[in-house]
Design a protein that fits this description.
Oligomer: single chain
Strand order of the largest sheet: 5-4-1-6-7-8
Shape: globular
Radius of gyration: 19 Å
Helix content: 55-70%
Order of helices and strands: EEHHHHHHHEHEHEHHEHEHEH
Number of helices: 14
Length: 265
C-alpha cells in the first residue's frame, strides 16, 4: 500500500479539548474521598469556586490527571500561590506526595475511579465542563480524511474516546488513541514508533502539542528529526513558554486558523 503523505500526532488536552473544568471538578471529587475532613467542610465548599479558578491558572504544570488532586488541596489550604506553583511544581509535587504519604499509581487509579463513577452516574454532567477549542473537531475530521492521525495523550484512552465521539462528534478509532498513562512510555518513544512505521522521505510527520517541555524532549532525542514540531498558542502554556518556542528553530507557534490550514494543506 502507498504510504500516506502526512502523519499527524496530536495531543488532546490543551490542543483539541479544553478539559480543565472537568479535570478540576473530578479532582475535587477525588479529594473529598481522600481527605473528607478538609474537603467536605463548609469552609471548603465556600472556597471551591476560588480553587476552581486558580486551577485554570496552574493548569500548564499538569502532565498527568492525578496531579490535579494534589493541586486542589495545595490551593485550598493556601500552601502555595498559583504563580509559585507555575515556577516550582516538580519539587512541590514531590514534597507533598511524600508529606501526605501518596503513591502515583494509587492516585492515578483513584482519580480514574472518580471519573468513571461520575460518567456512569451522570454522563451529561461529566461532559458538560469540557469544551473543544473552536474549529478543532472540523480540523480533526479533515486530518482523518487526509492522512494518518494519532492522538498522543497522557489522558486515559476511554475518556479521550468518549469526548471525541460524544462531544466532538468526530470518533477516532481506539487503536489510534495512544495513551501514555497506561503504557508508561514517554511521548518521544511513541513518536519514534510512529516514525519507524511511517517515516520515509515522502512522508510529512507533524506533532502538535501545548507543552513546551515535551517538544524540547523531542528536540533532544536523536532520531526524531523528521518530526515537524508545533506549539499551540491556545493551550495550557504560559507567555514565557511561548517565547521559548519562538526562540527554538525547530518549534513553530501555531494559532487556531494556522492549525486548520496545516491540517488542510
Amino acid at each position: 500500500a502507498a504510504r500516506p503523505k502526512t502523519v499527524f500526532a496530536l495531543d488532546f488536552d490543551g490542543v483539541l479539548c479544553d478539559s480543565v473544568g472537568e479535570s478540576s471538578l473530578s479532582a475535587w471529587r477525588a479529594a473529598e474521598e481522600l481527605w473528607p475532613e478538609q474537603f467536605r467542610s463548609e469552609t471548603a465548599i465556600g472556597e471551591k469556586e476560588r480553587v476552581m479558578e486558580a486551577m485554570r491558572v496552574v493548569r500548564p504544570v499538569v502532565e498527568t490527571g492525578y496531579e490535579n488532586v494534589l493541586l486542589v488541596r495545595i490551593l485550598l489550604e493556601g500552601l502555595a500561590e498559583p504563580d509559585e506553583v507555575l515556577q516550582d511544581w516538580l519539587p512541590m509535587r514531590k514534597k507533598w506526595m511524600e508529606a501526605w504519604g501518596l503513591e502515583r499509581n494509587v492516585m492515578v487509579e483513584q482519580f480514574a475511579n472518580c471519573r468513571d463513577t461520575w460518567m456512569k452516574e451522570d454522563l451529561e454532567g461529566w461532559l458538560a465542563p469540557n469544551r473543544f477549542y473552536e474549529g478543532t473537531p472540523q480540523a480533526l475530521a479533515c486530518a482523518l480524511n487526509k492522512g494518518e492521525v494519532y492522538i498522543v495523550t497522557t489522558k486515559q484512552e476511554r475518556y479521550t474516546a468518549q469526548l471525541l465521539g460524544d462531544m466532538a462528534k468526530t470518533p477516532v478509532p481506539h487503536e489510534r488513541i495512544l495513551s501514555t498513562t497506561l503504557s508508561g512510555l514517554p511521548k518521544t518513544s511513541v513518536l519514534a514508533e510512529l516514525q519507524e512505521k511511517y517515516g520515509n522521505e515522502d512522508t510529512r510527520m507533524v506533532f502538535v502539542e501545548d507543552k513546551i517541555a515535551t517538544l524540547e524532549k523531542v528536540c533532544a532525542t536523536p532520531g526524531l528529526e523528521q518530526w515537524e514540531l508545533f506549539l499551540v498558542k491556545w493551550g495550557y502554556n504560559t507567555k514565557e513558554e511561548r517565547i521559548r518556542a519562538e526562540e527554538n528553530p525547530r518549534i513553530t507557534l501555531l494559532g487556531l486558523t494556522e492549525f486548520q490550514s496545516l491540517v488542510e494543506a
